[in-house]
Amino acid sequence: MSVVVKKKRPICPKCGHHPSTCLCPYLPKEHPGTLRRSSIAILQHPHEARRFNSSVRLLSLVQEVTVLTGRRLDQIQGTDAKIWLERIRCGNVVLVYPSNDAVGLEEGVDEYRSRRKRIADGNFEGRGNDDGVVLFLFIDATWTHAKEMYQYHVRCGIFPPPPSGEKNGMIRVAMDPFRGWTPTQFRPSRFISIRCPASGSAKKF
Ligand SMILES: [Zn+2]
What residues are paired with 39 via a beta bridge? Predict the structure, then answer.
């Protein structure tokens, strides 16, 4: 009886890609950069943590990010999760998630900064973020899991409703890739001189 040993697909231990598409030569030689005016944490579903070529893995090679792996922030062990829970409790974290009540990124950051000013002036409940950086929390999961994770944190009160009036809350922002884009700006043939036709295609441009 012959035993078929399935060969493992080789992957780069650093970037997690196949050696033929290894991205390491293009990564910064120095250690990951640090954001000066913002700080990022990613609540990562355990399934995503098992993926070798995840974008979070790549991001953490170029940028300092805090990765909190688990479905539920309040059940993740370690100091980082506790720090971020406390930051959320104090109203200092902007959640990047496209919920119905999410606002645009700029609007969310403006609200965050004006809130900090109102806290400093004593006109708003909550505690300010002393180092002045904007703290962003992302969710890394499939859409189905991200929705589950989001709803869990809302149900438990970890993600309080968005701010209203003088009431503290958690600002949600949605990234809009088409922000500022208008149909008149779209010029489909602007790359015509540099692109090659698809193989086997006799398509006329
Ligand atoms: Zn690599």
Answer: 135
CA of 47 to the centre of ligand 1 (A): 21
How far does residue 71's CA lie from ligand 1's centre (Å)? 28
User: Distance between CA 176 and CA 11 in Å, rounded?
Assistant: 33
Non-local (6+) Cβ contacts of 154 within 8 A are: 161
Which two three-digit tokens encode residue 132? 């002045």
Taking only the tens place, the pLDDT of each residue in 5-60 is 667 788 898 888 889 999 899 888 777 777 778 889 999 999 999 887 788 988 88
Q: What percent of the chain has pLDDT over 70?
A: 76
> CA-based diameter of the chain, in Å?
79
Query: 63: CA distance to ligand 1 center in Å?
Result: 16
Other C-beta atoms within 10 Å of 43: how many? 26
Q: Which letter does DSSP use for residue 86 in this model?
A: H
For residue 36, the CA-to-ligand 1 centroid distance in Å is 27
